[in-house]
Amino acid sequence: MPDINTAPDPRRWKALIFIALAQLMVVLDATIVNIALPSAQKALHISDGNRQWVITAYALAFGGLLLFGGRISDLWGRKNAFVTGLLGFAAASAIGGAAVNGPMLMGARALQGVFGALLAPSALSLLAVMFTEAKERAKAFGVFGAIAGAGGGVGLILGGLFTEYLNWRWTFFVNIPFAIVAATGAIATIKERAGSRNSARLDVPGVVLATLGLVSLVYGFTRAESNGWTAGGTIGLFAAAAVLLSAFVAFEARVKAPLLPLRVVANRNRAGVYASLGLASIAMFGLFLFLVYYLQVVRAYSPVKTGLAFLPMIAMMITGSTQIGARLMTRVAPRWLMAPGFLLAAVGMLLLTRIDLDTSYTTGILPGLMIMGVGMGTAFMPAMSMATHGVQARDAGVASAMVNTSQQVGGAIGTALLNTIAASATTAYAKSHLAHATSPKLLGFQSMVHGYKVAIWWAGGILTLSALLALVLINVGHDNGSSVAASGEDADAEDFVPVMAH
After folding, report:
1. Distance from CA of residue 295 to its chain's centroid?
2. What is the pLDDT of residues 442-498, one digit of tens each?
3. Which residues contact 47 (CB under 8 A, 6 or more apart)?
4. What does each C-alpha distance from 247 to 210, 237, 254, 266, 267 come to in angstroms?
5. 7-191+259-473 maps to which CATH number?
6. What is the topology of this protein in the membrane according to its UniProt annotation (predicted)?
């Protein structure tokens, strides 16, 4: 066995603090701007038609460039990629906070996405190669999984606090101290292992095909939300995505040094993780969106109160990840944590289909949020660990990038898909109840809530499918077990990131 499995880095636990801090910054940035968007739109005179670009510019750059970022971290060194990503993200955040018009803000968001695509996969792959002992790995990924799962909720809380008590610009400026502390700590504590870089040349055609394909896919779902699923532009984008991504797969199968070695996704366990996490992200991103609107528009919660409403869910996510997932990971096979976790989250989500115009937060919303939090926390932790299961160390960055890609693309799809479902259900309800309506305003709220409930039912179904995929596809044994994956594509790798303790 090569040196990756010998003496562990004595500073790995300190390094985990800074890696987790960087992950928190990237994840919360996906939601922190959502609550601040109405204020930013008003201050910079952004039209209703263009405001979505503040969100979409980030998602397109991040989702489209993740595989490229993961491969860069393998070629250039994970520590170099991590620190560069942090400093670039801080600079982009400074530009966003100082924006004087809409295009400047949107450009800064795209730039955040570019550096986030470099930062996110290098963070996860650093963990994969620094923590190789089973119990330590479980603890490290417990922390990382909790942050990855809870970061979105933290973003909602901070977004509310900054928008209400300071200024929308602070939703950008807050990233600067995060990034500086994480970069300084990473430089001091992370030591790149000799020989861990991939010396192969960068696959430029693969980069172009993958990036254009993923951008077309994400943008297609964004256009579907605004222009409709049958619009010519929407269909054209989906067709382009299918052609580009098919060409990418065909090219990667033949090229000598591929951007995405197909062995990374051919392994059934990793494929199961990517698929189930992608579906779970579709459900979770959509739910965040509906609950924020329900609490702020229907129940007239302030931005701060809306953010705080998610706090119990975050607490339960952290509990599920560190107290349930991490403790059981060395005793229970990953699928018996992931499948029940996603199923429990689906139950919590289905409890939220009971919302109405005057639903009590304590009895009608809180139980569902807490059950969802425990379920997602329990499922996230083994999923993050399994993402690099059995992969060659020189492919750890791109394997990590696939997790982030499935989450980002899933989130973009979830927002567009579930929003379209909710809008259709809202319109249908309003038309069918118009004749008996006593108040147009009341009918508007009733229709809106009906639309949210229909979309949440769909989200619950998608989470159930996620649990089923995890159960069927993931067949690896637990961290201390003697069983190994049935599909051992990487078993003969010279240099791999282990999940099993032998």
Report:
1. 23
2. 888 889 899 989 999 999 999 999 999 999 988 876 554 433 333 344 443 333 333
3. none
4. 9, 15, 11, 17, 21
5. 1.20.1250.20
6. Multi-pass membrane protein
